[in-house]
Prior knowledge:
Blueprint: H1 2-21, H2 24-39, H3 41-44, H4 53-58, H5 66-69, H6 73-82, H7 96-109
Helix pairs in contact: 2-7, 6-7
Amino acid sequence: MRRNFLCLVAAGIFISLATLALPVSVRAQSDGEKLFSARCTLCHAADGSGSSPTGKALKAKDLKSDEVQKASDEDLTTIITNGKGKMPAFGKKLKPEEIQALVVYVRTLAKK
């Protein structure tokens, strides 16, 4: 019985370590997707194309475009933080790690 308990404890520790070993980008992606859905889809549409009615009216960038995808992570972080053109600034509304999660998620849009 003690042996079974030790096996369960070892398995629990292994699963915990395996979860922590996942790349930050994989864990952040789900957070980024949730943030994108809550904060960005109004203008950029769910697929990032900017094809929502609001996005069309504001001429929102297609986040899947080469122009956006070729921008550096630092540039995207700055734009999300400070805003640009008609895009509002999110630096006071989001934590730096949330903004980073959005950058990671925007990178995945080109692959969809």
